[in-house]
Amino acid sequence: MPALAAALAAGLVTAMVGALVVGTPAAGGALAGTAVVVVFFGLGATVLQVTTRVVPGASLLVALLTYTLQVVLVGLVFVVLGDSGLLDSIWDGTWLGVAVIVATFGWLGGHLWSSMRARVLLYDLPSSEPATTTGGGRRDGLGRAHADVSGADEVSR
After folding, report:
1. Residue pLDDT tens, the chain, 157 long
2. What are all long-range contacts of 33-36, with beta carbons under 8 Å and residues at least 24 apart?
């Protein structure tokens, strides 16, 4: 959610600056560029989130494939918009590109911010059963067995 909010905020600021500097076509292009980023990155994040819950082992593969597909589809959107004439008549193509870049950095910044504050359990906590072993050994706080060295034979002189 922070990534979405950051991307939308960055895109809206870009649209306002474009409207003040160039006019309505720049604002429209910036809003369209922001929409492209939010839709593609939002769908990619949703696919990745579902994958990590269902098949955690495949999450890296799905992340790489999703990113590749996103890059290809964003490129196709630019080609289609360029061929349709929308960038010449209704939207300013330069501001669309600027908004894509700015909203992408906003999205990445939001993800970075949320991942730095996420509490992710990196290890299993030790069990609460007593640390006893057979054979005179001992267990450390993580439950690993160690040899008992306190009664080791001393070397006589």
Report:
1. 888 999 999 999 999 999 999 888 899 999 999 999 999 999 998 998 899 899 888 889 999 999 999 889 988 988 888 888 777 788 888 898 899 999 999 999 998 998 888 887 777 777 766 555 455 556 566 656 655 555 544 454 4
2. 33/95, 33/96, 33/97, 33/98, 33/99, 33/100, 33/103, 34/7, 34/8, 34/10, 34/99, 34/100, 34/103, 35/11, 36/74, 36/77, 36/100
